[in-house]
Structures are given as structure tokens and as C-alpha cells.
Amino acid sequence: MAERPFITMAQAQAAMNAMIAKANETPDAPVAMCILDDSGNMVAYAHMDNLRLFSKRHAFRKAYTSAISGQNSVTYGEGTHARGSSVPEMAGDGNFTPGQGGLAVRSRGILIGGIGVGGYPSGVTDEELARVGLDAMGLE
Fold first, then answer.
1. Domain residues for 78?
2. Which run of H or E residues covers position 33?
3. pLDDT tier at 3 (50, 70, 90 boundaries)?
4. Is there a domain that residue 41 lies in?
5. Which of 117, 123, 124, 129 is deepest in the core (most CB within 10 A)?
């Protein structure tokens, strides 16, 4: 029987712990962090105190875009815009977003999910924090 990789609880916890530790270095800049499997189902979620509602939603949407498309959210958005469409029009799904901060999660070259971060004033920082989580997963 074939074995397909997936995001384990240990990997999700390691990613969340690493992102939370890094995010707590700047407590006045609260963020939300989300990990989804390759079907767009929630594996892990955390947010800091005093976070705006939109940032919570956006962390999910960034992780979702990456998990479903197999691309980092900003890359997906750039490709869609290059074709002259908006992200929701292209995907037919309002959960997709072009915002920076979503990373595709792969193991042995196979898409297994997405990580999304939302809340920092600059999307580049969101992506950097998502990368901290991805690196902590210790994937092949």
C-alpha cells in the first residue's frame, strides 16, 4: 500500500511553537498563524491578543491559497493578475488571496498543505514568519 506524507501533529506543533516564539519578540505587532492540510482543512491555528478580525481571516486565506494551489500565495496572485483576472474570479473561490504570507508545504516533493500568517503591516514579514514555521517542521 502506498504511503502518502501528511502534516503530523508533531510537525504542526513544532511549526506553531516556532512561529509563536518569533512573533512574541514583537508583542505590539499581533499576528494570526494557520496551518492547513492539502484539502484546506485546519490542522493548527493560533493568534495573539488584540488582533484585528481581518488578520485572522487573512491567515486562513493565505494558508488555503497555498494548500489548494500548491504555490506560495503571492506567486499565485501574481500569476492570476498577469492573466488579467482577480484571484477569486480565477479560482471561483472567495477563500483565495494574492497576499504575501502563505507558503505551500511539501514533503518529498508532494504538496501536503499550507501555512499562512496575517497581521503584520508588511506582507513580507508575514511570509518571513510563515517560513519560520515551515523550517521548524523539518520536512524532507
1. 9-136
2. strand 32-37
3. confident
4. yes
5. 117
